[in-house]
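Sample 3 of the quickstart, ligand 6-O-phosphono-alpha-D-glucopyranose:
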Amino acid sequence: MCGIVGYIGKKPAFPILLSGLKRLEYRGYDSFGFFISDKEKPFLFKKIGKISGFKQNFPNPSGEIGIAHTRWATTGQVTDVNAHPHFDCKKEIFLVHNGIIENYQFLKEKLIKEGHKFSSETDTEVLCHLIEKYFEGNLEEAVRKALREVKGAYGIAVVSKKDPEKIVVAKFSSPLLLGIGQEEFLVASDPAAVIAHTRQVINLDDNEIAVIKPDNFFILKEKPLETIEWKVEEAEKKGYPHFMLKEIMEQPESIENTLKGRLLTNEGMAKLGGLELIHDKLRKIKRLNIIACGTARHAALVGEYMLEEYAGIPTKVDSASEFRYRKPILDKDTAAIFVSQSGETADSLAALKEVKQKGILSLGIVNVVGSSIARETDAGVYLRVGPEIAVASTKATTSQIATLALLTLFLGRQKEMALVMGQRIARELAKIPELVKKILETDSQIKELSQKYKTFNNFMYIGRKYDYPTAREGAHKIKEIAYVHAEGCRGGELKHCELALIDEDFPTVAICPSNSVYEKMISNIEEIKARNGIVIAVATEGNEEIKNLADDVIYIPKTLEMLTPILSLIPLQLFAYHVGVLRGYNVDKPRNLAKSVTVE
Ligand code: G6P
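Result:
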């Protein structure tokens, strides 16, 4: 989620690192930093904000070895101190890190007992102290020993004053590549940062450690050289034509990040560090009010079903824009949950103000660390999906639902949810990233369907129970990026109004996985077919019967009913994306809409 660049060669490292970081900044990071290794004058600089917005003149360090980082905060607030590079007690080892160290609290406590002094709140700093602990003159050896104690994800670049003239890099579950130039080497988390210098790269594999020196490099095993074919702008999108598609495709990884370290499968529980401090208050909560806008509100609606069915807590979802102007009935037994990707949406912030004025406990489910909602709520859970650039939210949405499922476990198990039920939910949640990956593999089929349906100007989306919010979100997506009129409707409400719209020019996307309301959905599909309506069904793999009824079928794998929306949303995101592109629109920046709506 963060960006790393390192350089070693015969040129001053600083300008190369600076331009490399700027190439990564398109993703919207919150702080940056450098360490330039120079015998005379080592240079360490860390600052919050964007490099592009940094007005002060940088000094001009001359060292030819350096590491740099642009941070997307996950553990620890956005401060100068928490920015990378981090260092050990003696300020001899400097390190940049991309990823999450899951067992950092345990390691930190142990290292503190052993006498190490920490200066930041980050998980990353434990790596510096662990390397310091094992350092006996050879940096790669110390890195190897330190990493044996670490759980989580990392791409790291490390330098040491005591073993100079080298950068040691290592990776597990976070991307890292070496750029092989003429008498110079780079290391980066993203090809965008090296492409101006070389196209020859080696992608490191998990558990590999590499050492790069001014004149050579070695990895623990031989690796083939690859050539990057992308242009600089394409590299920023990792080769995808749009950020939206990149973000849709990132979902197996982003959901995995949301769940990482939070699922206690044996205990059938969720570990939500951000809620621990208010644990006692939460136990007393009898009602929940979830407040959100736009797509985040659809994720909240899924949460409403989950929290009521599995945690037994009466839950109400509000549009933030309505909340302030109606008379919400809130008492001390109610907690308000704010769901927001940006954490800056003006209506949500205004509603939060209202909630705080009434002295109600407030929680945030937010992506952007240190954003206003994250700061102003009493406690919260971060999504950890990294920057979302496309205006239409995709990867944040599925992780909002996954987080609400974690919250359901967390609250449910403190109330009446049985251990076996908790274990079942935890086990099924852990499988979700793999199932999402499987659905993404059917993209070419969804693209073909989009081609077939791209000229229709009206769509109906229907679903019941957990997939009613999915229907709303499917309609929302195609409206916002393909400018096609769509209605998102409860299957059971169809006959009270929307059925009147149906004819052969008004296709319906019916979300009908095999679950407790499947038969009811089939009746709704029959109602539509009886009016000459066209039906595209989103159904569970293995359901052959649906082919006799629907005109087209998109299959999704089986999971628990409460988790189905995470899966059923994926084809709807892809369908909207392809229809938007086929209609010739800039899907990343839909007309009249903004990513972060900071006005009421
Ligand atoms: C805007 C965006 C939507 C987003 C909504 C809420 O309308 O275009 O994609 O769902 O704001 O934003 P938030 O950052 O609070 O989730």
